[in-house]
Design a protein that fits this description.
Elements lengths: L2 H54 L17 E7 L9 H15 L7 E6 L1 H9 L4 E5 L8 H17 L2 E13 L2 E10 L3 H11 L25 H76 L1
Length: 304
């Protein structure tokens, strides 16, 4: 490799390092905001789901369309991924987890219905020939719960109409800045067991947002007014939105954390590569100087 080629490569790597360092800084700011939002929403989501569990435990709610188990209809998968790459294995982990679920459940493509939040998930569904009912891209990090309800209302309507027999959500569970885990959870039809699982996944094992894990205990009895069906008709869609919205916040926090870590690794790798190329450049240059000095010396000796 010539000196010019090595020097050009060093300059190219340095420019790439500048870009990755800038992306790391941007992702770090977004990560802190997303993490704080996801973590502060955990107590609210926990309380909302427990309230639903208490109400459902007060009387028989098995006949409600959103709690009734059925065998007919499709399986809807709400797939949450990012719009962009450069986030390590974040998206591929969610997609592998989704494929694993489909294989384990022996589901055929005609039995599946996808609602995709994020461009990567939409591309995955189209590439595999799955039916995509709706897809949403460029969802803002600052989207609020009321805006997000437009998405979950579609999911609720599918389950109420009987078009789907169950709804699953595939997302990335945020554990820490350096740890995110892909997961597929059942959302509808909702039950006490599902809510207990969601609450357990929401509650961190340690940190200021963790809480002491207590036994389930007896469910409190409630007097429902004006009517149990009317209360559930308003309550279940609202709390379904809370559960799904929290999964979006978790995915956003995971995305920015994974991207920041990936860009930091890329910056460190570029720095190491520049050092290695600089050493190579110095060796090649020194060899060229030594060769020229040797040629000059040989020429002088031959002229004597």
């Amino acid at each position: 490799m010539s000196l010019k080629n090595i020097k050009t490569k060093i300059q190219s790597v340095r420019k790439t390092s500048t870009v990755t360092r800038a992306m790391e800084a941007v992702s770090a700011v977004k990560m802190r905001k997303s993490q704080e939002r996801a973590l502060t929403a955990r107590p609210y989501a926990r309380a909302a789901l427990r309230m639903l569990g208490s109400v459902m435990g007060s009387f028989n709610a098995e006949n409600h369309p959103l709690t009734r188990e059925r065998k007919e209809g499709k399986v809807a998968i709400l797939l949450i991924t990012s719009d962009k790459g450069l986030a390590g294995s974040l998206n591929s982990s969610v997609l592998r987890k989704t494929e694993q679920f489909i294989v384990e459940e022996n589901l055929l493509p005609e039995e599946l219905l996808f609602i995709c939040l994020g461009r990567r998930g939409h591309e995955f569904a189209l590439r595999n020939g799955f039916e995509v009912m709706r897809h949403h891209v460029n969802i803002s990090d600052g989207i609020d719960e009321d805006q997000f309800s437009l998405i979950t209302d579609e999911v609720v309507r599918l389950q109420e109409s009987g078009k789907t027999r169950e709804v699953r959500i595939a997302y990335t569970d945020f554990r820490s800045t350096f740890e995110q885990e892909a997961a597929v959870h059942k959302i509808l039809p909702i039950s006490l067991k599902i809510m207990e699982h969601i609450i357990a996944s929401i509650t961190p094992e340690r940190g200021k947002y963790s809480e002491e894990r207590q036994g389930n205990g007896a469910v409190a009895a409630y007097t429902i007014e004006p009517d149990a069906d009317e209360v559930l008709a308003a309550l279940i869609p609202k709390l379904t939105n809370v559960a799904v919205f929290h999964k979006l916040l978790e995915s956003k926090a995971s995305e920015h954390s994974a991207r920041m870590v990936a860009m930091k690794n890329a910056t460190d790798k570029a720095r190491d590569m520049v050092k290695e190329l600089t050493r190579t450049f110095n060796r090649v240059r020194q060899a060229a100087i030594t060769r020229e000095v040797s040629e000059i010396t040989s020429g002088i000796e031959s002229m004597r």
